Structure formats: structure tokens, C-alpha cells
Amino acid sequence: MIKTIALSGSASPDSMNYKGLQLLSKHCAFDVDSLANYDIPVINSNASDGVVPQEVDRLITKLYDYDQFVFAVPEMTGQMGAAFKNFLDWLVTLAHNIHSAEKQLCC
Question: Which of 1, 55, 62, 66 has the smallest set of CB atoms within 10 Å of its CB?
């Protein structure tokens, strides 16, 4: 069985993105999580050295348990929200390969 996680890209624990995913999960088979559940600091590195905060590693490790990802990303002035962009920047720094031939990305 394919395991799917839906991640709210908002830092707000009361975000509409998170609420929408929770509502949708009643009709679709996926787990729901939010960036608000992780204390991810603002990235301050240009290095792809793999050194990341523990909370970032905790979230990335959790994502490895899933086959598919759904990201609910808030839109701020025509761009993705800062919390989600920060998370993506940490992914690059960590240099994890969470998107392989066996993984699917749904945005």
C-alpha cells in the first residue's frame, strides 16, 4: 500500500492549509502534519554540508516513511510562504534525496 503524507507549509498552528488537509483526510487516505509542529529555525547557511538542526532532521526522517507527498503551501503576495521556503532551503542544505524514482511529488 502506498503511504501518503500531506504537509501544511504554514508555520501557524491554526492555518487554513492545515484545517483543509484535516478535512480532506476524512475522505482521502493520508496522514496530516504541519510545519507548525516543528521548531525549524531560519536557515543561515550556504553550505551543502548536511549539518542541520535536530527538528529539521526529525521532519525529513519522518518523510522517508512515506511514498507520496502532498504539500499545502500558503500563498503570500504571489509567492510561497516563508516557512515552506525555509523548509525547502533546509532540504537543499541537508542534501537528502527524498524524491527518487519510487517517490512521487504532488504539489
Answer: 1
